[in-house]
Amino acid sequence: MFRNIDFDVAEREIVAIVGPSGCGKTTLLRCIDGLLPHDAGEIWVGNQRVEEPIAGVAMVFQHFGLFPWKTVFDNVAYGLRMAGASKAEVERKVPEFIKLVGLGGFETAFPYQMSGGMQQRCGLARALAVEPNVLLMDEPFAAVDAQTREILQFELLRIWDERPTAMIFVTHSIEEAVLLGHRVIVLKGRPSSIHETIVIDLPNPRTRATLREPRFAELREQVWGTLMREAREAEFVLER
Amino acid sequence: MTETSIGASSAVVAAPPATSRPAAFSGSFVPRLLTGLVILLSWEIVVRAVAPPYVAKPSTVVLAIPRVMTDPEFLRALGATLAAVTEGLAITIVAGTAIGLLMGRSAIVDRMIRVYINGFNALPMIIVLPLFSLWFGYSGAARIGTIIFAAIFAITMNVADGARSVPREFLEVARSFRSGRWRMLTDIVLPASMPYLLAGFRLAAGRALIGAVVAEFFLSIGGLGYYILYNSRAYHHNEAFVGVLLLAAFGVSFELLVNWCTRHFMPWYRRGA
Q: Is the CB of residue B179 less than 8 Å away from at least one CB of chain A?
């Protein structure tokens, strides 16, 4: 599946991963989360080797992965409870993270009552609530509409400013990758490998103004240029 | 029934449109009433025209209702049957769900017991009565045994199907958040299987009632089934029919109970995830 994929993520760094469809971005993330076994190579988080899901790493899913029978409160509390948090801890932390993602007042709502944007805020709060060192984002905004997506991108930047973690952000969107990432890794091919790593030297914190900077447009074009050939090739590959 | 429950369950989000429920209600109510009246009327006419006077007909059954409902013997019989069905169903739900969850989530357990579950499920329940009466005597225990035997497979097979079809995303999220296998079963698999459990309960409740009545027929122990049998044989057809009506009412109220539980405890169900 993969060949020669080797990269590090610093403690407070956002690494965005882009690549053509079917190059295994999501699979890579699942391996890092310990959800999928890898038969060669090693994945380390701090000084812990990943063989199965470990504490300190939390994932935000493209499909949100909220439990429909749980309220916002119970969904956000889920990770904490699985980590064995005390009742008092849950009562204290959960409202804090619900507020952080802007869902204050919706504690007793069920997922079916909420828009996609609200659902993903909830998914983000659930991941943040376990206070991970590494946040894995699997195309988290791919399932929401374009406007909501933009809102959520800046919400994520605001939240990351308040609680910085290492973050690996998989996305289809070059714009999103350049806006959020401190580095952008472009994957290619099957078996997939790192095509290029592009350092995004845009000033922090990133805001809406970032989108208007000439440097932003340059970097976007650079990533696009790198990706384009791969994307064109990937478009015409038949499934095996 | 379905239209009504969907309309009413949206109350959690916002008040449903004021017209939706009465409209659905009256929409099915009038035809329903009409069917009932036609059946009752034909029954009355046919019995009056051709049958001897002791044969039950709607007008005499209605007259018998107050008499029967205040008869202590009838109330004792009713209580005995209801208690047995409740107890049997309680045991059935707990045991049936537990076995179903294990079957659904463990290929080994499934391979070990599926063939037996299917086999027993296909047996006519009445076949076990001679055995149960030998094992437990002509007693309430034999009745409970029959109820459980009649009802449990409906729950087990449904829950097993539900547990097997839990969306993979849910299990992946649970694993990502480091849920243990046991927690996953109670925390994710069981609630995700609830709709299947309720569907199983619908079937099981009806079968439990049948099981109780059949056991009472066969074992001649006090209860609604025996009350009906005894009164039919004594040519008290009207009294027997009140018992039958009550059994039918149980069937309807089980249905209402399930619908109420669905709306109340699972507002999320039927709305997609």
A: yes
Which of A48, A59, A63 is best to mutate for the B interface (most B CBs within 10 A)? A63
Q: Look at the block and give the residue holding tokens 């927690």.
A: B183
- Chain centroid to Cα A99, Å, comes to 20
Q: Roughly how many angstroms between the first and final C-alpha of chain A, as a whole number?
A: 13
Domains for chain B: give ranges and CATH numbers.
1-49 (no CATH), 69-265 (1.10.3720.10)
Six token digits for residue B72: 């202590």
Whole-angstrom distance, CA of residue B18 vs CA of residue B7: 10
Rounded Cα distance between A226 and A220, Å, is: 10
Report the run of H or E that residue B123 belongs to, with start and end: none
Torsional class of B139: left (φ above 0), alpha (ψ -120 to 50), beta (otherwise): beta
Type of residue found at A96: E
From A30's Cα to the closest Cα of chain B, the distance in A is: 9
Chain B CB contacts of A110 below 8 Å: 12, 267-268
| CATH, domain range A1-56+132-240 | 3.40.50.300
What are the boundaries of each domain within chain A? 1-56+132-240, 66-131
The alpha helices in chain B, defined as continuous H runs, are: 2-9, 20-50, 58-69, 72-105, 107-122, 129-136, 140-164, 168-176, 181-184, 190-219, 224-233, 237-265
Q: Is the pLDDT of residue B140 over 80?
A: yes
Q: Which pLDDT tens digit goes with each residue over B199-236?
A: 999 999 999 999 999 999 888 888 899 999 998 888 88
Query: Alpha-carbon distance A224 to A186, whole Å?
Result: 10
